[in-house]
User: What shape does this take?
Amino acid sequence: MQSFDPVLLDALGRRHTREQALRAYGLLRETGFENVNLDLIFAIPGQDLAAWRADIAAAVALGPEHISTYCLTFEEDTALFVKLSQGHVRIDPDRETQFYEVARAELGAAGYAQYEISNFAKPGRASRHNLNTWAMRDWLGFGPSAASQYRRQRGSNPADLAAWENDIRGGRRAMCERVTLDDGMLAVDSVVFGLRCNAGVDLEALSRRFPGGRWNAIESVVSRLAADGLATRDGSRVALTDRGRLLADAVGGVRRTGIVARACTPRRQAEDLAASHCIWAVPSRRVLTASGADRCLAGP
Assistant: This one.
């Protein structure tokens, strides 16, 4: 969906119209889908808080079980990126924070509980796929660009449709840029992505799953986060505070740089995670959105 406002959809360069998106949503319901998500984007050039509240209200009125809210990212080779590079639009973290806090308040009041920085759901409707991914469990992606993690192998399918189709028709596994994951990588990723969830992470449980991780270093970083008021600790469970969630990307950067000395390649491991459940990648200087962690964690 991204927005219900035709002007904002045009600003985003989206090809679909508000009416087309509403028809697609209606078809899902008519077909019998009982668990539907809507994605919304905020901090779009020209969007003010009133327009953002209107988008949230329109989404809530449709009654989806799940709503994801993402801060706009400026991807290279797009018209918006050109405008950013030319100074016609700018990134304003304080403004983004206002949008984020409005979403938390209004979706919460409408019965959508925040369970991850960018994700809100009605009771019992949190995305099991998302939670599985953030916990560093296995998942499989089948379409072009889809990411998979299975039996300690992580990779993504070709983005090019023709290349993907040729692999499938040739009986080949359509996966490129595969990497083998060790305990150290999985331990860090499980903590970084797990901390984006409101429930936080259980370090003791994770250390049993990934005993080869650098847990002493992780414990040291956790202590620093708690001392700075960015995290709380209850036994072995650690969760970000409200302030910590606003600075989640920076927290991810502290964890990465404090625990590992190398970037997780290929192609930014966390970006592959992001692609697997339709999250936009956001530069590390941004403070709010899901998978901003990817560049903060893996470097530029």
Observations:
- The first strand starts at residue 37 and ends at 42.
- The chain has two domains: 6-126, 127-300.
- Residues 127-300 form one domain.
